[in-house]
């Protein structure tokens, strides 16, 4: 049984498999009865909803547009405030959160047209701080790169996963994510590297190259097939290689973490 508010962050370079892994973790976590799960799509490209097979109406980007005229200025309110700003934002976020089977979903989205992300990131940070407290587990699917960590949008997490492809350069980059989190003085309980899209024969190389590797996920043709026809990754069967590998990773990391078992 998880303690209240366990936060999992899935970060890494572009196209490495963050959304697939976040989705599979959400799928496996939602198989535990009674856990209240929050999925946060922290990628302006909004890809987690379709991977989960869920439609989102409004995003945090839309809220930003509705409230503020200027994307850099928190004082540029479009309408006079009836309630304190933080209460108004909390209410609006509560309204746009989508309830699905076994989890809730909140999407960051992006501003319409060109605009600075500062204020949007500020609202996302506020949403993460506020709403992770209302759920047992939160899984955050990051945008590619290190933006949310370097800007401290996500600053308190229990497990930080860095996803990489099976190359030495990729694994070295993934190692630097942990260092960045330390340098930025982010609070994180534990971290680990997941090497994804690994072909047969490369497993040993991936494990040996870094002691931070907590799991290896095979290259799986059925994932590409799901992508081609737009089928949600959430529907991958429990015995598919990716789901089996992610279950093993959760068992070795989150589910055996003492923070998870505190309640
Ligand atoms: N284990 C795998 N086997 C086969 N294909 C995979 C695997 N993991 C991911 N892919 C494919 O790689 C692509 C990227 O996956 P995904 O969208 O999950 O990555 P991402 O890190 O979230 O990307 P982005 O940085 O764009 O958000 C997709 O086309 C997906 O189908
Ligand atoms: Mg993604």
Structure description:
It is a single chain. Helix 1 (18-29) packs across helix 10 (241-252) and helix 4 packs across helix 5 (118-131). Helix 7 links the parallel strand 6 (156-164) and strand 7 (187-198). The protein has a single domain (6-261), classed as Rossmann fold, CATH 3.40.50.300. It starts with 5 loop residues before the first strand and ends with a helix. The radius of gyration is 18 Å and the shape is globular. It has an eight-stranded mixed beta sheet, sandwiched between helices. By secondary structure, it is α/β, with parallel strands linked by helices. It is built from eleven helices and eight strands. The structure holds adenosine-5'-triphosphate and magnesium ion. Residues 18-19, 43, 47, 141 line the site of magnesium ion (MG).
Give me the secondary-structure topology.
Blueprint: E1 6-12, H1 18-29, E2 37-42, H2 48-52, H3 60-67, H4 85-96, E3 98-100, E4 103-107, H5 118-131, E5 137-142, H6 147-150, E6 156-164, H7 168-183, E7 187-198, H8 203-209, E8 213-218, H9 221-229, H10 241-252, H11 258-261
Parallel strand pairs: 1-5, 1-6, 2-4, 2-5, 6-7, 7-8
Antiparallel strand pairs: 3-4
Adenosine-5'-triphosphate binds next to α1, β7 and α9.
């Amino acid at each position: 049984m998880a303690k209240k508010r366990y936060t999992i962050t899935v970060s890494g370079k572009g196209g490495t498999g963050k959304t697939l892994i976040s989705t599979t973790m959400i799928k496996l976590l939602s198989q535990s009865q009674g856990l209240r799960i929050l999925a946060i799509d922290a990628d302006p490209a909004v890809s987690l909803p379709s991977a989960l097979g869920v439609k989102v109406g409004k995003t945090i980007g839309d809220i930003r547009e509705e409230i503020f005229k200027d994307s850099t200025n928190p004082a540029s309110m479009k309408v006079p405030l009836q309630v304190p700003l933080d209460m108004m934002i909390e209410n609006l976020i509560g309204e746009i959160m989508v309830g699905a089977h076994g989890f809730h979903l909140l999407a960051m989205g992006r501003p319409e047209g060109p605009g600075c992300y500062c204020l949007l990131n500020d609202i996302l940070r506020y949403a993460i701080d506020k709403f992770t407290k209302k759920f047992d587990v939160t899984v955050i699917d990051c945008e590619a790169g290190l933006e949310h960590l370097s800007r401290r949008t996500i600053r308190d997490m229990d497990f930080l996963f860095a996803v990489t492809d099976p190359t030495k350069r990729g694994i070295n980059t993934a190692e630097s994510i942990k260092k960045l989190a330390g340098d930025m003085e982010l609070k994180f309980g534990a971290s680990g590297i997941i090497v994804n899209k690994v072909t047969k024969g490369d497993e040993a190389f991936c494990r040996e190259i870094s002691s931070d590797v907590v799991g290896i996920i095979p290259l799986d043709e059925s994932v590409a097939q799901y992508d081609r026809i737009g089928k949600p990754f959430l529907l991958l069967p429990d015995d598919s290689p990716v789901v089996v590998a992610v279950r093993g990773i959760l068992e070795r990391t989150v589910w055996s973490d003492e923070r998870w078992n505190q309640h």
